[in-house]
Design the sequence.
């Protein structure tokens, strides 16, 4: 029997037991819906976490320190401290030239005096790299990010802005003066001098959140200026004082370089290369691996719990089809007497199971999607009430929708094996005698 | 009713495998036996039956209930399997066939007519008659026309879209005959075809079978316990009792 005839007959048989088949199909739909809803939660959460962490740039970032620095993260590092290379401009340029490196930003922060109107405050000032414009914290900025990498502009942390103005947003567009310590190169090459300087900046933005998810030292500053501007100001750094003790104070060194890659894929290679250059390097790459493992396990568990309903639904298919075999015993006998082979009869029952699986799977995906939307809506209402930004915690990607339908089809056909083989093995003589 | 027209023409289904045995027997049984095991006892439903029916013959298989005639008919139809012996239908040995080949035999070589009609009650007459054409994978284009031809030939063209419960017994049996002939079989096996009909409808059905045999040369083997019916329509009668075929001399007139 050809496929078209097979599905025509299957459709006719299913219409004859409309209620029973509809209920079984709904059972599959509910099973698939629960599976889709569970998995879409897992995928949504993973996407949410990935979005947050990837946006922070943490996984495409390698932190480089000199082994001369005792605070670096490797054990026994200071054993060879004397021989270790300095983290200077030469090192910075070499690292910047490595494949996949997008930006090498030195850590620049210094205590400074900020004068705003008649108020004077001592605060931590930090240089923010240009790449920070894609930061999550900048997404919720009030005002704007710096207009150019070397602009004389600052961003304020909201807490600090509150100190300056009752309505923090009122500070936007106003000017403040920064008094800071500037490093001046000494003539002898063995010393340098420090001078007090003043510079005026325009307040362009107010940050609600800490940049880089608060994961870097500079994140805790209260006033941010463009890194390029901070470098041009020659802000005196802690590392400068340490350098005096070491051999070459005339040379500019950095306490830490933050190396940002085009993508997280380069991080491991760059980290290795930097270590071979005899610097300390650290990345959060291992953390991503554990995170992925965690989500794989989470998805698996959510999938298993979600599939339980589908497993129950598959038993309903077996039941429905076994009932159909019993009810249609005589009809199966007639079909065999008219020349239907065992395979034809078997295929007919498989076609009925597959139809229920396909229809149930499709309905289930739609139902799962609707459940997800409703819960997403509810979650966002709650988040809104808690004054938190709306998030998309439920995602039904195309592969999940297609996969769920194929899975439902597969489960249904598997559930059809027993009834189909029972129907195929039916003795036509006995089946024809059945009233 | 016009059974002399081509639609019911038998033995030309073009399956391409039938042996060229124009002059040979349509049905030949050699020591055909069918045993059933019931607990520890073995029941001999058909035992050592040998006979031959020529092409184009109309034969009746007579005997009381439980004599084994329906079992023998099921063996010839390929619905049941022999325990011993051989059966050749249209030149092909059924004892050598696997289940797929037996299905093909039922599909193309024989047509079956039952006492209880065995039409699918939820299908229209047209759908019922189309069923064997679906199994034979007849192209869809010619299928509906063939169904209409068959229905016209048994005088049921106007009943095509009716379901069996809406028809009289005689009409249902005529539809069943049309269905049995859908794939142009060489042999028609009828199991008590008038058993569930009143005498007028029974006559009509028997006339139809007789005309099919006479005009188209389709071989008919009819099981009945009605000796008068057999005497009137069949050219030869075979008698069975206790699973065995009785010699002609033993038959009581």
Sequence:
């Amino acid at each position: 029997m050809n496929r078209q005839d097979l599905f025509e007959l299957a459709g006719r048989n299913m219409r004859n037991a409309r209620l029973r088949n509809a209920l079984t199909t709904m059972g599959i739909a509910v099973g698939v819906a629960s599976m889709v809803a569970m998995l879409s939660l897992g995928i949504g959460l993973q996407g949410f976490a990935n979005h947050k962490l990837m946006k922070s740039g943490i996984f495409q970032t390698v932190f480089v320190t000199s082994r001369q620095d005792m605070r670096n993260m490797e054990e026994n590092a200071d054993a060879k401290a004397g021989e270790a290379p300095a983290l200077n401009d030469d090192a910075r340029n070499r690292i910047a030239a490595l494949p996949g490196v997008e930006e090498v930003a030195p850590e620049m922060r210094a205590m400074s005096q900020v004068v705003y109107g008649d108020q004077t405050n001592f605060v931590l000032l930090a240089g923010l790299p240009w790449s920070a414009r894609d930061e999550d914290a900048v997404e919720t900025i009030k005002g704007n990010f710096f207009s150019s990498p070397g602009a004389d502009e600052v961003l304020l942390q909201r807490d600090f802005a509150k100190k300056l103005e009752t309505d923090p947003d009122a500070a936007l567009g106003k000017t403040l003066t920064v008094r800071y310590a500037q490093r001046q190169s000494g003539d002898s090459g063995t010393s340098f001098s420090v001078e007090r300087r003043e510079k005026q900046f325009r307040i362009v933005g107010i940050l609600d959140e800490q940049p880089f998810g608060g994961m870097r030292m500079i994140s805790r500053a209260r006033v941010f200026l463009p890194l390029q501007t901070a470098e041009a100001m020659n802000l005196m750094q802690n590392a400068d004082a340490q350098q005096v003790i070491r051999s070459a104070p005339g040379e500019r060194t950095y306490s830490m370089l933050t190396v940002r890659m085009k993508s997280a894929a380069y991080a491991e290679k760059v980290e290795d290369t930097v270590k071979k250059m005899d610097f300390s390097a650290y990345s959060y790459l291992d953390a991503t691996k554990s995170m992925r493992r965690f989500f794989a396990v989470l998805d698996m568990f959510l999938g298993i719990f979600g599939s339980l309903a589908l497993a129950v639904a598959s038993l309903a298919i077996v039941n429905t089809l076994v009932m159909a075999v019993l009810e249609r015993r005589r009809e199966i006998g007639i079909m065999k007497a008219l020349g239907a082979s065992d395979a034809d009869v078997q295929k007919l029952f498989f076609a009925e199971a597959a139809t229920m699986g396909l229809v149930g799977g499709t309905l289930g995906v739609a139902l799962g999607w609707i459940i997800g939307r409703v819960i997403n809506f509810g979650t966002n209402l709650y988040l809104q009430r808690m004054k938190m930004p709306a998030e998309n915690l439920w995602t039904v990607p195309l592969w999940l929708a297609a996969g769920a339908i194929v899975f439902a089809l597969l489960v249904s056909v598997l559930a059809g094996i027993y009834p189909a083989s029972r129907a195929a093995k039916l003795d036509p003589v006995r089946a024809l005698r059945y009233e | 009713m016009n059974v002399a027209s081509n639609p019911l023409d038998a033995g030309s289904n073009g399956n391409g495998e039938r042996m060229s045995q124009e002059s040979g027997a349509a049905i030949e049984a050699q020591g055909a036996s069918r045993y059933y095991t019931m607990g520890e006892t073995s029941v001999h439903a058909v035992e050592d039956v040998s006979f031959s029916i020529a092409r184009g013959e109309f034969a009746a298989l007579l005997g009381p209930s439980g004599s084994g005639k329906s079992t023998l008919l099921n063996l010839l139809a390929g619905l049941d399997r022999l325990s011993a012996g051989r059966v050749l239908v249209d030149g092909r040995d059924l004892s050598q066939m696997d289940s797929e080949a037996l299905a093909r035999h039922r599909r193309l070589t024989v047509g079956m007519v039952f006492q209880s009609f065995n039409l699918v009650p939820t299908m229209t007459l047209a759908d019922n008659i189309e069923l064997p054409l679906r199994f034979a994978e007849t192209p869809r284009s010619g299928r509906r026309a063939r169904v209409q031809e068959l229905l016209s030939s048994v005088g049921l063209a106007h009943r095509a879209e009716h379901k069996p419960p809406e028809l009289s017994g005689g009409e249902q049996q005529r539809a069943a005959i049309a269905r049995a002939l859908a794939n142009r079989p060489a042999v028609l096996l009828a199991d008590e075809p008038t058993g569930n009909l009143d005498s007028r409808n029974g006559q009509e059905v028997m006339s139809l079978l007789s005309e099919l045999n006479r005009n188209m040369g389709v071989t008919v083997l009819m099981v009945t316990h009605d000796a008068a019916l057999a005497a009137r329509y069949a050219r030869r009668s075979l008698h069975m009792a206790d699973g065995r075929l009785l010699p002609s001399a033993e038959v009581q007139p």
